[in-house]
Automatic annotation (TrEMBL):
Gene3D superfamilies named among the record's database cross-references: NAD(P)-binding Rossmann-like Domain, UDP-galactose 4-epimerase, domain 1
Pfam families listed in its UniProt record: Epimerase (PF01370)
Assigned keywords, A-Z: Isomerase
Protein name, entry field: UDP-glucose 4-epimerase
Enzyme class: isomerase
Species, as recorded: Microbacterium immunditiarum
Alphabetized PANTHER family for the sequence: DTDP-D-GLUCOSE 4,6-DEHYDRATASE-RELATED (PTHR43000)
Amino acid sequence: MSNTRTAFVTGGAGFIGLHVVEQLLERDWNVRIFDNMWRGDRDRANELAKTGKVDVVDQDVRSGGAVAAAMKGSTHVIHLAADSINKSVADTYSSLDVNVVGSHNVYSAAVDQGVQRVVYASSASVYGDPKKLPMHEDDELNPLTPYCIGKRTGEDLLRYYERKAGLSWIALRFFNVYGPGQKTTAYYTSVINHFVNRLRNGEPPVIDGKGEQSMDFIHVKDIARAVVLATESEKANAAINVGTGIDTSVADLARILIDAIGADVEPQFNPRDVLVSRRAADTRRAKEMIGFEYSIDVRDGMTDLIRFEHERAAV
Ligand SMILES: NC(=O)c1ccc[n+]([C@@H]2O[C@H](COP(=O)([O-])OP(=O)(O)OC[C@H]3O[C@@H](n4cnc5c(N)ncnc54)[C@H](O)[C@@H]3O)[C@@H](O)[C@H]2O)c1
């Protein structure tokens, strides 16, 4: 394998970014992490730099000049930096500034420097509340918050630069990502943390309604593998779902976590009307275009996560 490939990874010190960088290193890539460390793990990024294959640039995607200067010499771009979904309603300006202006800075630098591929972290939230499952890439998009609007615009800007300048891109619509290294404030997956905290205190998970609302939980190692496949793929210029295709209800999740922790409790149901939203990816395009299929089942992934958290707490 050639070792002249350099991936410029924005947000490379974040939860998903660090897993991506580790998998790129396993495949002999050189990596430049570009991250303002707002939510990044600087220590882990610096540790990876000791391999001699990783540079770390502590800069902001909102600065077009900094992006262009740091991207020099890169052959591929993986754009993961984003303002979090939690912040987007409270600070719309910042959300659009990072997620739209920042993405534009990354793409225009990529065009100017003639990189071979841009892979963009989009989100299943661009669909809004789906009318049917599984959610297919050609379904209507109905982004509901500034974060989701920014993600959709990030995709539209890729299409614009494909038409204008022949940019080669893939936008990956991540479903509900979980796994080691995730922040406890993660928006959609905070339910995992909430249940685990209660179980560790000997309390049962409390579920609103019947717990029918569901998510498509996908392990961060599978997400990182999809990112690397998209970066190396010969096919391009499409939005692709990255999920398992399985909708796990909140009630199922509670039982999976009870088993993983080995707690002797039953979930409690809090009878009230809840808006039941459900999510599951149509996974066919991911398989056809980039050869991706998930490998970590939600039960195994959650059990590993509990073991990881337990070992970390014991250190
Ligand atoms: N985690 C999920 O469930 C999920 C689901 C769908 C999409 N995504 C997308 O995947 C990407 C990575 O998500 P994550 O969960 O690893 O989030 P994260 O917050 O852990 O990582 C984002 C990284 O980007 C950096 N960053 C933020 N603003 C920046 C800026 N202005 N300039 C430079 N760096 C900046 C942060 O410091 C952080 O290291 C994001 O684009 C996110 O929207 C995540």
